[in-house]
Write the structure tokens for this entry.
Amino acid sequence: MRTTSTRARRAAAAAGVTVAALALAACAGGDSGLGPGTEESSAPPTEECPCEIRFSWWGSDSRHTATQAIIDAFEAENPDITVVPDFTDWGGYWDKLATSVAAADAPDVITQEERYISDYASRGVLADLSGLDIDTSTIDESILAAGQTADGQFGIPTGVNAYAVVVDPQIFSEAGVELPDDETWTWDDYVEIANEISAKAPEGVYGTQDYGFNEAGLNVIARQRGESLYTEDGELGVSAETVADFFQVSLDLQAGGGEPDAARTMEVQDAGPEGSLLGTNTGAMGIWWSNQLGALTKASGRELQLLRLPGESDGERTGMYLKPAMFYSVSATSEYPQASAKFVDYLLNSPEAAKIMLTDRGLPANTEIREGILGDLDAPNTLVADFMAEIAGDVVDSPPVPPNGSGDVAEITERLNTEVLFQRLTPDQAAEQFLTEVEAAIG
Amino acid sequence: MSTTDIPRRAGVPARRERRRSRAVSRGDGRAAALFLAPWFAGLILITAGPMVASLYLSFTDYDLLTPPEWIGPENYTRMFADPRFLNALQVTFTYVLVSVPIQLALSLALALVLDKGLRALPFYRSVYYLPSLLGGSVAVAILWRQVFGADGLLNQFLAVFGIEGQGWVSHPDYALGTLVVLNVWTFGSPMVIFLAGLRQIPQMYYEAASIDGAGRVRKFVTITIPLLSPIVFFNLVLQIIGSFQSFTQAYVVSGGTGGPADSTMFYTLYLYLKGFGSLDMGYASAMAWFLLLIIGGMTAVNFLASKYWVFYDD
Amino acid sequence: MTELTTATRLPDDGTRLRARLAQAAGGLPEPSARQRRARRRAAVTGLFRHILLIAFGLIMLYPLLWMLASSLKPSELIFREPGLIPTEIDLSNYTDGWNALVNPFSTYLLNSALVVLGSVIGNLVACSMAAYAFARLEFRGRNLWFAIMLMSIMLPIHVVIVPQYVLFSELQWINTFLPLIVPKFLATDAFFIFLMVQFFRGIPKELDEAARLDGCGHVAIYLRIMLPLALPALATTAIFTFIWTWNDFFSQLIFLTRPDMYTVPVALAAFRDSTGETSWGSLFAMSIVSLIPVFLVFLFGQKYLVKGIATTGIK
């Protein structure tokens, strides 16, 4: 299965661990190592196909089935290229990817996410895609920039999502509370409305679900204040005051009854979209990524709607942004970079692929392709597409690529928010600790 | 059970001593080499290499994506200044000290009940083993919320008595407790080993004791306990080793975070999150080797103590 | 140990004779009445025990029953109506789940079965051999080797998996079942070696000594005495290897990279996406399906657990 040229390249790449190499030398013939190569500079001039490339992604069964259909369509058009699927769930995906990279056995086409792309790109695992034949002309510059670092274009966004408020109008009307005007509402309005709904709705139905477990909310609030979670040069760009205010919102909601008590909040948080307050018809609002509207709608059995985040009009600037759902990347050590590029190009630009994938990897970043699938979307995703078109004009810019180590920030945010909810830390203490821990993580 | 073999046993001790000393002097080196050959090959080819590699990595800065860099014992000194590591250590020790004795006692008690004397025992045994079959299935996380959640089964039960419960599984003060219960709930494996051990006790001992007029309690104390002691010992050692390395249940129930607020952050879970989540495999390897020292120490103590209470028939 | 010898001190022939005589004298009216009362008492306590065992069993089973119930509900009702009794029965989770992934679920069941079969055979052969050496043979450094063996299960898999991957990748074993099966044939599962050592040591040593006097070598003792008499230990090993391999997620996830080689746990994980939508209905349905083989193995396998010396007898 593996050809000699791979072996040769891996041998060249193996800077390796001496001890491990020694221990394994008997059976490995010496070309082993615990570090992948980074030296591979230029793609081989001629690529011999028929060839086989491996494409790895995470997700659940609907994505696996759709992607397999796309692969089949691609192979029908390119009979000399075989694409081997390699899929798993989110958690297992990163373990498997890190392990295979460590053993110089990375997949050829790698799905990436903004929290990790910098880690992989800066360590030479990913190829600079600008040198490969992938058409990105129809992708918005600011969205494309989300996959760029100073050293090159290491990922191309598959599609975009927006962080937004999802509401259940039925609970609003049953509680006799009017839907807010999302062009003008503030974070104070948000807390007030949530508290009001909890008070007026039947026992066990709440105004909203806690938002403090996701650092994306912090980033939006920071941007509304003219700050940013991370700066262009990969530093922390948010003030202690902003972080404390971010945590304070949860406490205000808890005190006013707008969200469940701490233990119940934790429980709901762990239950995903299906077990969320919105999903179980026990909450009027929740802050989610727009691509989760489908799952929420299905679970709730109701017609949910999207609203802009609060505070967009009364801050220094708007804070909402379009986040790449994920990135397509190509391994720097791929034996077939050209075939891999061809496949990525197909994923991005082929109308057939788009028709199969629809918005499963976010609303397509390719504007022409996006137009082409609008008619095929189901109700929730049509809503998402309309919503994105509506806010697009207000989005100022994309946040910079999160720096190395930002994968830990999700965990830090989640843990500190828990400490605040259970009142083991005040928002000010949590903010201090947040800054210290994040600086250590990305430093 | 023929009776002819009994007299042979009766006179054994003295003869056994004599024969043992002869066996020692002769030695079974060649036979041992034959029987241990597969294990030895596995040790050299599969086990030792990765172990040595991880020991080496524990002295390096290794992010998995680039080659490791030697940094000396820094990972080891770093551990003791890491409050989350110390917390994980404390959580793990608490868990081991509480859950191992409870699980062993319960599984032994049920093994005795399910050993014999009732109809439909195979069925009960299978039913009691079922929870252990679930393993680390993600379904367990959902199930556990159904039982220990704010609106869970436990609180519904408490409400009958007018007690207002709370969300147990997601409260930092109680989450670890629910994991102990989860561990006890899957007592099937030690129970099965106890059952097998009970069945290996030669029936003739009981028959002889019955004829001697020994009651059930006396038979239990003088026959079952000593003859089962190697199995009790095995379960104790392996449960301690296994509990120190507990990972799956906390990983599944807390959604991989060790939360709420690190209250279920087991040692191995923290090590995993550092190694694969933070791409700090050098640090993770150092933690793993420190854990090996702890477990190894506990196991050594166990083996030393076993001389005083474990009875071998050889 | 002293207690043991007193308790099992063997009855002289006089005692046994008296017991026999007492038995022979049975059938008189008085003992028969006593026997009947005893039998009735036994029936009552038996019933009582059954009730307790069933009650306890229900507590043990509740979560599983919930999972079964959920697998029969339409997916979107699982969390909205979390009760035990489904309001509507819907088998589509089973049909959908079976075909939801790239290959039909039977592919994953078959792959798991192959891995499990190899692992069970490997563990039975290799671990029992090693255990025989540790339990019965005298050789230099025995305690040291035993300690090394135990040490090998004290290191968490997460720090050895990367070096292991490098090793298996060099052997071109990635995406085959070899990294999952071959180690079992090389007795890397120290748990089972230790287990069998404990059981072998429980087998009276006079038996193999008698066999040796009859001219048997170690191989014959191992094959003809130890293995048959340690049947419960072998059954335990087989059953546990089956269940643990069937449920093992991490190493199967890492070493198998093509969907047509995926095993059941890896496939089950692929139903879930914590960042998006999870097909809980299909996940529960296929979890139930994958529980059936292990449950059956346990149900029928346990017959051999209870066939100890007690039933095979020592001749």
Observations:
- Residues 14-71 of chain C form one domain.
- Chain C touches chain A at residues 75-76, 78-80, 100-102, 161-163, 165-167, 169-172, 174, 249-250, 253-254, 257-259, 266, 269-280, 282 (CB under 8 Å).
- The two ends of chain C are 25 Å apart (CA to CA).
- The longest helix of chain C spans residues 29-71.
